Amino acid sequence: MKVYLETYGCTLNQADSDIMGGILKHAGFRLVKEASEADVVVLNTCTVKGRTENRIISRIEALRKQGKRIVVAGCLSINEKRVRIACPEAVLVHPGAVSFIAEAVRRAAEGKGGEFKEKAAKEGLPRLFTKPILRVPIQEGCVGNCYFCQTRLARPYLMSYSVKWLRSWVEEGVKRGAKEIQLTGMDSGAYGLDLGTNLVALLDEVRKIKGDFRVRLGMINPGHAKKMLPKMMDIFEDKKFYKFFHLPVQTGSEKVRGDMNRAHSVADFKKVVKAIRKKFPDASISTDIIVGYPTEKEEDFEKTLKLVKEIKPDIVNVSKFASRRGTVASKLREIPTEEVKRRSTELAELVRRIGAEKNGRFEGKRMEVLITERGKKGLGNGELDGGNPKGFCQLSRAIFPAGKRRPFSLLRKSGSDMETVNWKGRADNYKQVCVSGKAKMGDRVKVKITGSNFGSLFGKRI
Ligand code: SF4
Questions:
Q1: Average pLDDT along the chain
Q2: CA of 120 to the centre of ligand 1 (A)
Q3: Given this model, what pLDDT does residue 376 score?
Q4: I want to staple 27 with a disulfide (CB 3.0 to 4.6 A). Which of 102, 184, 265, 355 is the partner?
Q5: Distance, CA of 56 to CA of 179 (rounded, Å)
Q6: Ligand 1 — pocket residues by CB below 6 A?
Q7: Do 279 and 370 fall within a single domain?
């Protein structure tokens, strides 16, 4: 039987797809690359944003019209009512029940419907080993209770994989050619709290694994990071670890942070960033910010802007508040959409200015880059797309109506050369580098940085 696996959402969800893919192959199913070829389509879904949920529901409806048998896995499976309206005979597999995916596919093929909710261990399950990037889920669930978060409802149990099992997965992955290990979870900081161990113990074990590979640590809440700082900083001295830290702060206002019921203060976030930068001045700091939380006043938003100007994060994932079913915040009166949009545009503009300024510092420098992705033909410095850097279009269109000349000097400092960007890779601080020159997947190459924009560095292999 042919199965097509389509994945939405975070790295943890992609890692769950690697496990489901491994189980299905082990059970004799054939994984195909197109939904059109498949007998059964497995959608591994995400529910963080309303827009994503709507997109997935439309996808389910479209596939059903094509006569496809459908399994809905991942976080949207908790919104059974909406899924059943779109496809009454779909088979639902909750995030904790991925070990039942083969049975779910068989039921879907027979048009029997059904739902798999049981939480079952994921350790010991077959998985797909990908390279050069290997996603390794270390835990799911968390110990937080943020009032805007629906993910917590979809993955309600804190479940960590054992250090021994994770070590065997990384070793196997490196043996099979993985060069970048992405340790991922809902909150890596909560790792091991259910097993009487912790993240530092795991990282220390990974550090001992032989081989030429790099490790990217996934999202960790500032509250947990604060407690582990000294030991974690020592471990990160090892070249194996990308100097990249993803620390969601969500707001710059302590009042709104309290209203969100976040388990850390804005001051904690600042303290952690300061300690990281003291040890690793070139480290990349990534954070998440929600704009327009129902209790956010103008002065609170100003505090968020002030925090971003002060901390100058390398990456800020800006989200507009979206009310999610079943959360405490869904009962709060929302701020008018136009106002949320205005705040989000203002913050996004600031984030890009800071990103461009920070990346500009690397121009002229030589960096070592791990090649992890193919680049695009004929796109050079600033990844020009019709004269605009990619990804900036939405914002520039919002600010500069069509046909109006758009000033891009703030993003592109060096002269553009239209050399082919053959490859993309990551520097030691996980900055994305678009590389022109000869290389191959998994190579570690020396690059001279010739240009930059808010999201990427551009360079020539030397
Ligand atoms: S820490 Fe908060 S935002 Fe993160 S998964 Fe848990 S409840 Fe959701």
A1: 90
A2: 21
A3: 66
A4: 102
A5: 32
A6: 142, 144-146, 149, 151-152, 186-187, 221
A7: no
Residue 87 in any domain: the answer is yes
Residues 295 and 356 both lie in one domain: yes
Q: What is the H or E stretch that residue 69 is in?
A: strand 69-74
Q: What is the pTM of this model?
A: 0.89
Q: Which atom of ligand 1 is nearest to the CA of 186?
A: 5
C-alpha 129 – ligand 1 centre gap (Å): 28
How far apart are the C-alpha atoms of 40 and 89, rounded to whole Å? Answer: 12
Identify whether the C-beta of residue 165 lies closer than 8 Å to the C-beta of residue 207.
Answer: no
pLDDT digits (tens, 9 = 90+) for 9-57: 999 999 999 999 999 999 999 999 999 999 999 999 998 888 899 999 9
CATH number at residue 59: 3.40.50.360
Report pLDDT digits (tens) over 119-162. Answer: 877 888 999 998 999 999 999 999 999 999 999 998 998 999 99
What distance in angstroms lies between residue 144's CA and the mean position of ligand 1's atoms? 5
- Res 383: pLDDT: 42
Judge if 248 and 296 occupy the same domain: yes
Tell me what percent of the residues of the chain surpass a pLDDT of 90: 84
Q: How far apart are CA 311 and CA 324, in angstroms?
A: 29
Task: Say how far apart CA 422 and CA 432 lie, in whole Å.
Answer: 13
* Domain match, 39 and 182 both: no
- Closest ligand 1 atom to Cα of 149: 8
Distance 50 CA to ligand 1 centre (A): 17
Nearest-CA residue for ligand 1 atom 1 is 144
Atom number, ligand 1, closest to the C-alpha of residue 262: 2
The alpha carbon of 11 and the centre of ligand 1 are apart by a number of angstroms equal to 15
Contact assessment for residue 95 and residue 16, using Cβ atoms and an 8 Å cutoff: yes
Last residue in a domain, options 360, 385, 410: 360
- Residue of 139, 140, 142, 250 to test ligand 1 pocket, by largest number of atoms within 8 Å of CB: 142
Q: Which two tokens stand for residue 309?
A: 């100007």
Contact 423, 375 (CB under 8 A): yes
| Domain at 239, CATH number | 3.80.30.20
What span, in angstroms and rounded, lies between the C-alpha atoms of 223 and 228?
9
Q: Is residue 212 part of a domain?
A: yes
Last residue of a domain, one of 337, 360, 383: 360
Number of domains in the chain: 3
In a domain, 121, yes or no: no
Name the residue range of residue 24's domain: 2-116
**pLDDT tens track for 405-446:** 444 444 444 444 444 567 999 999 999 999 999 999 999 999
Same domain, residue pair 223 and 177: yes
Predicted confidence (pLDDT) per residue in 62-82, tens digit: 999 999 999 999 999 888 899
Structural domain includes residue 123 = no
Residue 248 Cα, ligand 1 centroid: separation in angstroms? Answer: 10
State whether 317 and 215 are in the same domain.
yes
